[in-house]
Write a structure and sequence with these properties.
Strand content: 5-15%
Radius of gyration: 21 Å
Helix content: 55-70%
Order of helices and strands: EEHEEEHHHH
Number of strands: 5
Shape: elongated
């Protein structure tokens, strides 16, 4: 097994040698100690998810690239922050269509919007972990926001199963859209933290 980390050969310590899980853990610890995260993996020129390192046989060359944690967080939050206004506009459109009884058009947009919301929640949660929750003063408030958005989605899914479309429009206007709007402010706070000089 040959491991190239940012184009330089990386050799595991003797205790880890021969144990793929220990090698992977040591590699992650090494990268983390430099304030970085493993971002990509190539095996024989083919790009794969980094976790594939644990599944592929040893007779290959593993090319791993890292990225500074703050850069990865900043890029993720920038993407999330750009996407949120479009998501909010999409939910407004869905509510309008439901109220106008254009149900089929609304339903076609809704699944995509649900998936987008879960993506935003996931990105924010991952960024919180990477930045270190101890550096965030309003963790409880944010958890409350995240829970509120998740609960609104659950209520909407239940109403959808029972085809209560006007109730969905109401939940959108009264719970989900306000919750996501507050969440948008928090992603901006996280972004400012990620771009600050203090770890």
């Amino acid at each position: 097994m040959k491991i190239l980390l940012n184009n330089e050969e990386w050799i595991p310590s003797e205790p880890s040698e021969g144990n793929r899980n220990l090698i992977w853990q040591e590699l992650q610890d090494h990268v983390s100690s430099r304030g970085e995260i493993i971002h990509s993996l190539e095996v024989d020129g083919e790009e794969m998810l980094p976790e594939a390192f644990l599944q592929i046989s040893e007779d290959h060359e593993f090319v791993l690239k890292t990225k500074p944690i703050r850069l990865l967080v900043r890029e993720s939050l920038e993407e999330s922050h750009r996407y949120l206004p479009a998501l909010l506009k999409g939910y407004e459109s869905i509510a309008n269509k439901l109220e106008e009884e254009k149900t089929q058009e609304a339903l076609e947009l809704m699944q995509q919007a649900f998936e987008g919301t879960q993506w935003v929640l996931g990105v924010t949660q991952n960024c919180q972990v990477l930045l270190g929750e101890s550096s965030l003063s309003d963790t409880e408030e944010v958890k409350h926001l995240q829970d509120g958005v998740s609960q609104a989605l659950e209520k909407m899914e239940k109403a959808l199963e029972e085809q209560r479309f006007f109730e969905i429009a109401f939940l959108l206007r009264e719970e989900l859209i306000p919750g996501l709007s507050a969440f948008e402010e928090y992603t901006q706070k996280l972004y400012l933290l990620a771009t600050s000089e203090v770890q």
